[in-house]
Amino acid sequence: MTSFGTLFRELFKQKSKTTYLVFLIQLIAAIIFVIFGLISAGPGSYDHAMIAGVKVNALVAWILSIAGVFLGLSSIAQPVYLLMTSWRNEKINRSQTWRLVPMSNGKIYLCNTLSSFASFIYLAILQFLVALVVSGIVYLSSSDVRAGLAKGFSEIAKYHPGDNFAWLGLVAVFIAAILIGLFWYVIVSFYHFVSRAVIDFLPSANGFFIFVIRVVTLIVVIYLLGLFFNSLGNFAFDFVSAGSGNEIWYTDLLFLVADVLFGGLNYLLIEKFVEAKAN
Amino acid sequence: MTELLTISNLSYKKNQKQILHDVNLQLDSGKIVALLGENGAGKTTLMRIIAGVAKNYKGQVSLEGEEKEVQRKAKLSFTDNLTGFSDSTKIKDVVEFYINIFTDFDENQFEELRKFMKLDPEMKLSQLSRGMKEKLIIALTFSRKADLYLLDEPFSGIDAMARKRIINSIILWKEDQATILISDHFVNEISALLDEVVVVKDHTILEHKTADEIREGHESIEEYYEGLYADEEDE
């Protein structure tokens, strides 16, 4: 029997290739954008670059520009990556190669979903590391920058921003981001499994009829989601006492239940109804 | 010989179409068995059900007494077309996957088979011809120490000379107690290997005979198989 950890590592290894590819494309795109910006702005456009009121050299300014554009492009790269991995996820869910792994189909599904999500988080970590490295470069670039930043931070510290900052709220937002990200993979699989089970059950159909089944299934799934979030939403909102500032915990609870419920349904669907695609 | 595979009252429908109906089959360990039948007879479906990748069937399938799919998957090796890998995957990467995932995968056995099949580990799947890909699939399948090997039309793209060499060597690649269930259209080429023949017709097992029983009737396996369809051809 294959262990959960072994399959997870294997799936993550395969998916991280896409992570590196997206990361690389994002980086190259950022460099190209900055070069174009440089060309259109003309020579010497970085000569007067400043950080925290301190003049920095052109190279640091250039690296900083690339990092800025790179991080800006994350808002495109992450949704694109989410779509790419969802597509891959569903291909693996029905792949005979993967379904022959000596593990229950439900566990293969869990392993696949979690490894996709982990690879998504991995991309976010790589993007964060770029920000960290660039910050380090800027910080080390000159003593004037360090002095300028220190002065800026000490000014901010006078207002004791930490006293009123809701650290617990930040944790809740972080948890919500994880649960919502996971929900995307879960709901895509739910739609895929339900439509596949219906297509396999009904008499053989042509391409157009299959398209109609998929559209109808999509409408039903959206309706079910609406029903779920409406009915559970009212209950959960009372539970966390609305207006208390804890609404983000309400979101956490809602998506936790959604992940467990629809994930559980997917587990059952793949165990009982959704078979591997024939070679 | 001990009982290896038992299939009882197996029925399978897909898209409201009966693919298999009331299939009953029992195979012992240590045999080489041909699974014969026309295209679309349900041979591949039967293998997929045994392998645990086809769903929604009725009836029981047990391998060494184990009915759970996960247990069956651990005990059998099925020729998979490797569609789960991208075309840019190299042979050596596919092998690494098998080493990591299948605890019964024998790396040394694969190395021997790879040399026998003349496969370059640096080649990508997209660079392989149909025959070369089938050779790789056979090498991967037989590198696992399984109790049951399911070979679904494994030689259809392999040239006649290589096919002959592979068929002659198959018996050396399996443990004595392991059973091979092989579906193939080249009945005459595999007939010398066979211990038993199973014929799938009209959605069920039409006949299950030993090769000796067929030969006792002064027929070759090919003649026997063709005889089952003779009436239809006359009509």
From TrEMBL, chain A:
Record bears the keyword Secreted: no
Keyword S-adenosyl-L-methionine: no
Transmembrane intervals: 20-39, 59-84, 117-140, 165-187, 208-229, 249-270
Source species, domain of life: Bacteria
Keywords attached to this entry: Membrane, Transmembrane, Transmembrane helix
Name of this protein: ABC transporter permease
Organism of derivation: Lactobacillus xujianguonis
TrEMBL record, chain B:
The keyword DNA damage appears for this protein: no
Listed Pfam families: ABC_tran
Presence of the UniProt keyword Iron-sulfur in the record: no
Keyword terms of this UniProt record: ATP-binding, Nucleotide-binding
Gene3D superfamilies (alphabetical): P-loop containing nucleotide triphosphate hydrolases
Limits of the ABC transporter domain: 5-227
MF-aspect GO terms: ATP binding; ATP hydrolysis activity
Name of the featured protein: ABC transporter ATP-binding protein
Taxonomic source organism: Lactobacillus xujianguonis
